[in-house]
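re: that chain from earlier
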Amino acid sequence: SGEPQPKKMKNSQAAPTPLERAKDWVKKKNCQAPKLPTSYNQELLHRKMACTIVQKYLQGVQAKALGKDGKFSLVGCSGMKGIGKTAMLVHSARCLVPEGATALYLTFNGGGAHKEEFLKSLQCQEGHKDYAAAFGHMLLAACGVDSCLARQLEFEDCLDVYRSLRGLSAEAFVVVFVDEIGDLEEMESTATLTALMRRMDKYPGQLAFVFAHIRQDILDKCATKSAREVTALHLPALQLDDWKKVVGINWQKAAKEHAQIQQLLLACSGHPRSLVDGLPAALVEVPNLLTNPDESSLVSAMDVIMNKCKFNEFDTKFMADIVPQWFDFVDKIDTGTLARDGVLLKVNGETAAQEVELLHPLILLRWARKMCEDHSIPHHLQQAYAADAMVGPDAEKKMENIMYHYEALLKKCVESKEFTLMAFYCSRHIGKKFLNMTVKAHLPRQLSLVHKVDNFQNIKEVLHYLKQGFIVVSQAHSEVGIEYLSPFVCVDTEDLIVAAVQCKFVQASCAWADMKSKMEKATKDLKEEKVRFFPVFYTSVDQNTIHSDTFSDGVYFTESDLFTFTKKLGILRLHVMKLGAKLQEKYPWLKQAV
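^ sequence. v structure.
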């Protein structure tokens, strides 16, 4: 054609591959591998069993000990926010990886987690999404590699770049601790878990993953879907008295001097972040908290703790939906739902029988204080807590205040529903004729479902309020043998039926015959008015059983029955100060909480 042709270069070299360019980037930019969080240096309390499981698991992976069907089991710790999942993973990364292994920690929570890079990587992918590759891109972003360059690499290449950065061989054992994977949408977290575990199966002895997810059911679902076993590290709360190890002598002194401080500590219920981060922060923000814990100081302190625990997302609407379901004994809430929402706290026990599941009491307590002037449920919840703050080791009065406000709360939560008296009074000691007696609660349209009268002598006035659905309490406290009257409506006959309630919280034993005699005298006017009634005795009797003849006429509570009945309120001062050895034998942590 006569046009000059470009000269061919001799010994030309092919352009560097994306992998080569990524490794070159790491060298030139002096990139650094992501470091472990520095804010988790405190002692890891009561996680010995979980640590043993992680350590043995990683040793097995290093030894290429594949599980069922040639697949490694999925290991993950779960539990509510602030329960210690991150602390567990960081401790494992520091102390539990086998000799010769390299630990890597990545989290999907917070700006430093590079979660956005993970999501952008998925958005940039066309067609089938490669979740493992997106995780690899997130890893390189955490190392400081250019995003556009990283996104050209497969997962294996990303791991190769990381190994190069750390000066590791291609076969070096890398253990990746993946935190807060539950911050992803459910589909994304499940797909990522599955993709990463497949890579682990592909490279036995070279790669391992340990996950943390707020929801154990997602970990279970992922393992089941990929036909592999799951090893759960569900983290319960710490011991109730672990606050003594965390916050020190000033809090101990204040707890002895101020009932409200003891109540606040019990409301923390061994929740690690409440103790480790929340309480010290509260003391900084509210300097007079331990010396003058007035209402304003306590509310401010709870707000600080809630903020530190990231409980602020549990707003008033969320709680207004959840709390009635929590106390509803007719259509009982699936605790798995609460676990998924991150509000279910498991109080630790040495055995499964000693564990108690709670809707985090601090969240309950703060919500009740915030909303007590607006709705009946938080009003009576707050009143029950206020009465519990008055409990003393010797004083018996104020005990009934807890019980009638709790009864009012329960009734409001099952308003318009039918239920048996046995379902309401969940005692093991209830007369047979009450087992299947179906009733309902007809309630007044008022904030308080409790009405106080001067005394019970004006039976016409008392019946007037009972028929409206009020729990009627005598302010005179002069009616020997009865504390208050609690009304129900019999479903079959529409008749009024009244619980005549007596509270005995002083002696470790009761003279039942004497109590019955006093009850009969106190209810004489109800008999004359032909009102159906039955006795209810709330006691702190330190025994496991009562003879069946004793409780044939009504409902009787020992200390164990009382704890079972009221534990949905959380761990109360009533539980740790008034109930005795038999209950502490069943739940040793109650004794530790004193």
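The longest helix spans residues 186-202.
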